[in-house]
Design goal:
413 residues; alpha+beta; Butyryl-Coa Dehydrogenase, subunit A, domain 1; Butyryl-CoA Dehydrogenase, subunit A, domain 3; 3 domains; eight-stranded mixed β-sheet; two-stranded antiparallel ribbon
Amino acid sequence: MRYFDLDLGLTDEDRELKTAAHGFAAEVMRPASVEFDKMSPEELIAPGSPYWDFMKKGYQLGYHMLPFPEQVGGPGLSPFQISLVMEELAWGSFGLTLALNTTLGAAAAMEGSQKLIDEFTIPYCACTDGSVVGCWAITEPDHGSDTLMAGYPSFHDPSIGAGCQARLEGDEYVINGQKAAWVSGGTIATSILLMCHIEGRPGRAGSGMFVFSLDRPGVSKGKPLDKIGMRELNQGEIYFDNVRVPKEYLVHGPDTYEADLAAHLSMTTPMVGTWSVGLARAAFEEALAYCRERRQGGKLLVDHPNVQQKLFDMFRKVEAARQLCRAAFVHNWSNPPRSRKPEYGFAAKTFAAKASFEVASDAVQLFGSNGLSREYLIEKLFRDARTTMICDGSDDSLAIAGGHFVAQTYPRA
């Protein structure tokens, strides 16, 4: 494993964390991701599937609870260390890194009462067999990335409806509707962070964030989604039919929902960007290794000037994406909610996702016809990279929302 020259100032602890994560990514995650990629979505999550063996290994090493502090059983890593480890894991598999980090419900519970922390956060961190799985559900069949555009004018438009509604009845909310097939961990999750519209409140901003267990009466799940990339990541619909949830499970209500969503996205988007950096680096390193072995036109590919130029362009994108994502990650994870910068998170995610796709595409080109063959890892990395530009908000929508943040809030000269 090589260390990048710009990784200056790493402590011994930082290097140990990075080396351990890279070892797990290389020895466990990457081989598992290749195996899981060939399975059907149903086979992947079936009882006895090797997927559950993988999840157990990841949980035993604590890679499912990287963001949590020591007081709830987490490792207590700094934001810098979390980003360092997550890049290494995503180098092994973007999809499995996401599968290990569907933790928003457990994280959101920490913003609620001690009861919620005891019920959701602590058991999640204490789990060592992969049986406690969270999910984050916001998009709906008729509403995609527009549900993530906090701060944009359409977020307050009362004419834009919602497919999932919560109605207050006494001391309980009654939830009806559906969340879309893109819920990561949706068909295997045991708990949920649900973004849901509150009946009687206008616009998308009139929503709330609920945390609750998915064993409640009225909850059902769809079939796992069949995708071109990130096939090792389970995703699927969740349905709610008069699901009753006590009021105390509403962590953030409609009065602060928009600001709270922006604060959450400020943390999740640079995380997805960091995973995209790991994926981009994997594609770059695969291409570099191939060019050092493949002979074409009487010499190694790596000795051709046009190949060197392409490799440098790929290298430049990986390094630039890392610095932006790491800076956004550390800032937004180090500050209280109202001091976070959504526009930097959006910039990090969209820049890194585009970089991962372009680097993976260039890698396929350098492999030539071999890049189209399933014999080589690069075709999988290319398929995975294409999904990053839609994962956790399409880049198009995030760019619009980010542009609005910049236009309205960026300091004036």
